[in-house]
Amino acid sequence: MPKIAQVIVDVPAMQTDRPFDYLIPASWEAIIAPGMRVEVPFGSRQIQGFVINIVEKTAFQDQLKAIIGVMDLAPVLSTELLLLSNDMVKQTFAFKISCLQAMLPSMMRAKYEKHLTVIDELTEAEQFELFKGKDSMTWKEAESRNLLPLLAKLKKEDKIEISYEVVNKARVKKIKMVKPLLTFEQMEEEKEACQKRAPKQALVLSFLQSLLIEEKDSSSVALQKEANVTSAVLKQMAKKNWLAFYEKEAYRNPYQDRVFKKTQAMPLTSQQQQVITPILAAVNTSKNETFLLKGVTGSGKTEVYLQTISKVVALGQQAIMLVPEIALTPQMVERFKGRFGEAVAVLHSGLSEGEKYDEWRKIERGEAKIVVGARSAVFAPFQNLGVIIVDEEHESTYKQEDNPRYHARDIAIWRGQYHDCPVILGSATPSLESRARAQKKVYTLLELTERVNQQQLPEVEIIDMKDELKAGNRSSFAMSLQNKIRGRIAKGEQTVLLLNRRGYSSFIMCRDCGFVLGCPNCDISLTLHMDTKTMKCHYCGHEEGIPRECPSCHGHHIRYYGTGTQKVEEELLSVIPEARVIRMDVDTTRKKGAHEKLLAAFEQGEADILLGTQMIAKGLDFPNITLVGVLNADTALGLPDFRAGEKTFQLLTQVSGRPGRGTIKGEVVVQTFNPEHYAIQLAKEHDYDRFYAHEMMLRHRGKYPPYYYTVLITTSHQNEIEAAKKIQKVIEEIKPQLSEQTIILGPTPKSIAKVNNRYYYQCILKYKNEPNLFDILHQIIQSSQGEIAKGLYLSVDPEPLSFM
Ligand SMILES: Nc1ncnc2c1ncn2[C@@H]1O[C@H](COP(=O)(O)OP(=O)(O)OP(=O)(O)O)[C@@H](O)[C@H]1O
Ligand SMILES: [Zn+2]
Ligand SMILES: [Zn+2]
């Protein structure tokens, strides 16, 4: 009886979002298993797919096509991850294929190569000149040889066809190794013989002798470097059978040249001891329990993580440590590599695709026991997890913004349940959702209220920028901040200046007629980028030059609004010309490794001031930073976002944790136009508990999370009326099926109603208990298939991060 594989194919579309059946050729029956990638025929194409199940028989057995290729020798997705993908589909409304792909390094995603294949007799000239005697060529080759017009003609005559083939991008890196073939004595002889006429070869022979003694091989490159010879010399010696080349599999290791100083577990403070006790109890008894570890900045949370992981590894289990992308600094990596060395795999977006793939393989093969990584590391292919830690659990980057819209915290909790292991959510400023769950005893609350060594939290001074304006100071820097910076420079201490970029951008406006340059495709003004001297749309990527005159009235009084980091840097240098400044923003950190380089330069004292956006708020732990200035604390407060207060509080608390980590007490200066705002006042007092109480009161009053769950439904269409009609229809369909208590906000056009020439409409559901809601929404998506195929876009985003 032939076996049949159920395959999820790599076509992210509504109509193909289900398993397809394929026959397993007899020769592969023993190999193919659920979780493996295969190549299958689909329509006229060959595409990649994931086997999710194997069955004996199906109804349409006779008409089935067979699997044509196997891309893995063992499953790349475990039973656990396949099971998880089912739940992800339900919770995120994404296609199954997108969920499966999200779990693997991008290098393992399918890549297709277009081929041109001969299907009918060609003339001799065509066969030999075009196809070089072969019967197919890649599209790329045809393109580079300028053959496409000729080939198009053959296509018309039905003599060739275009086909797609799956290419496995995931390539293992190989390095060329050298091994000696002679005995020590033979080499000694040859050395003497060639000393005069080929001294270089003699030198290589000496190195080979030492390799022989140490019983080691060397890479060809290393040997060339050591003996200072070219590869030609080695090739000559290989010809004489003195040495041989072979290939060895190697990992691309971004941390190859770094030496990590070994660190030991520190004796814990009594508070640390108190919080780690119940965690270790859960580890020891394989108990699934979610802990919320709330610890002020610098309270030694990381040491608690390290010692928990150490216990887990001692028990033969593995650990996942999630860190927000921007907090995954070299320092953070060093703390884990310093404690656990080679057992640590690191995954973050700064790595190349190949490096990520290699780190993933280290985990998969069991060589790494610990992964430290950003959001997607939550899918690390460990088989026996002992703990999952989500540091800075309040960070919004844990939720993926596009499909599949999963939240890494939810995935962590799911996997913790599957593996019967504890999950630790850590933060100095827990999200309201998590803090409220701890209140309800769904999570176990653990607190670290003091900094290690009783260091005090820094003083926070709030400056009302309205007063500065009244006093005639129009710059971005309050007088007292300027003086404090000068003081630090004089003492050789360092300052960090933070520009809050949320909800804010630089744009240009005509002073004569008020014209603002907008994007032709979207409802948004273009952002000024001085580095490329262009105006860019942050939504669709449209780019144009900076206008010299007003496109509307042709006047010449164009004004630049907003304060980008570049402009602030210029201004800073005009008030404090002696300052040495390092600027860190998207523009200066675009190149790979730039982020690390800038931080290292700052740590080594090459600058007095580090000026940057949000990305510098986290993870900076340099003892010489004694002053932090927040230039505009309140840009987020004006946004129509119910989390604006929470985000502002988190950001200010985070930066307030930076200065004064050494022996000198730190200071924070916060510039704002809303000095009385509770988020700013309570951040000044480092009072999370009062902030939590106040914010919960506001959320209760406004019927927002965590009191209510939320779902955002979006429609979009090139035709505005279609988008509006559809959202209305969706609401009419669900409304009768919902309880009285549920609130429907909208429909309304999105706050940016037109993006890339599509119109967006949305509505928000706020509900307390709707057990059928997700099923209803899945059904609506299903029944909208026809419209979706004709250009409608319909998306459902549970617990959206923003209502805009
Ligand atoms: N038990 C201990 N004894 C001595 N020093 C410690 C101890 N625990 C932690 N430290 C040190 O205290 C400093 C702050 O600790 P850590 O960075 O772990 O705090 P944190 O709570 O993770 O901080 P943040 O959330 O602000 O990054 C670090 O330099 C760390 O090495
Ligand atoms: Zn645009
Ligand atoms: Zn004008």
Task: Let me know the average pLDDT.
Answer: 86
**Spatial ordering of strands, largest sheet:** 14-15-13-16-17-12-18
How many structural units, i.e. domains?
5
Please report the total strand number as a whole number.
33
| Secondary structure category | alpha/beta
In CATH terms, what is the architecture of the largest domain? 3-Layer(aba) Sandwich
- Write the CATH fold name of the largest domain: Rossmann fold
Family: Belongs to the helicase family. PriA subfamily.
Catalytic activity: Couples ATP hydrolysis with the unwinding of duplex DNA by translocating in the 3'-5' direction; ATP + H2O = ADP + phosphate + H(+)
Keywords: ATP-binding, DNA replication, DNA-binding, Helicase, Hydrolase, Isomerase, Metal-binding, Nucleotide-binding, Primosome, Zinc
GO biological process, one term: double-strand break repair
Brief description of this entry?
It is an enzyme of class 5 (isomerase). The protein has 804 residues and is α/β, with parallel strands linked by helices.
Structure description:
The protein has 804 residues and is of the alpha/beta class. The chain has five domains: 4-108, GIY-YIG endonuclease; 111-167; 270-454, P-loop containing nucleotide triphosphate hydrolases (Rossmann fold, 3-Layer(aba) Sandwich), CATH 3.40.50.300; 459-504 and 562-698, 3-Layer(aba) Sandwich (Rossmann fold), CATH 3.40.50; 709-798, 2-Layer Sandwich (Alpha-Beta Plaits), CATH 3.30.70.600. Helix content is 33%, strand content 23%. The strands form eight sheets. Strands 14-15-13-16-17-12-18 form a seven-stranded parallel beta sheet, sandwiched between helices. Helix 14 (408-419) links the parallel strand 16 (385-390) and strand 17. Helix 7 packs across helix 8 (220-227), helix 10 (270-284) packs parallel to helix 11 and helix 21 runs antiparallel to helix 22. The longest helix has 16 residues, at 199-214. The site of one zinc ion has 8 residues, from loops. Its cofactor is Zn(2+).
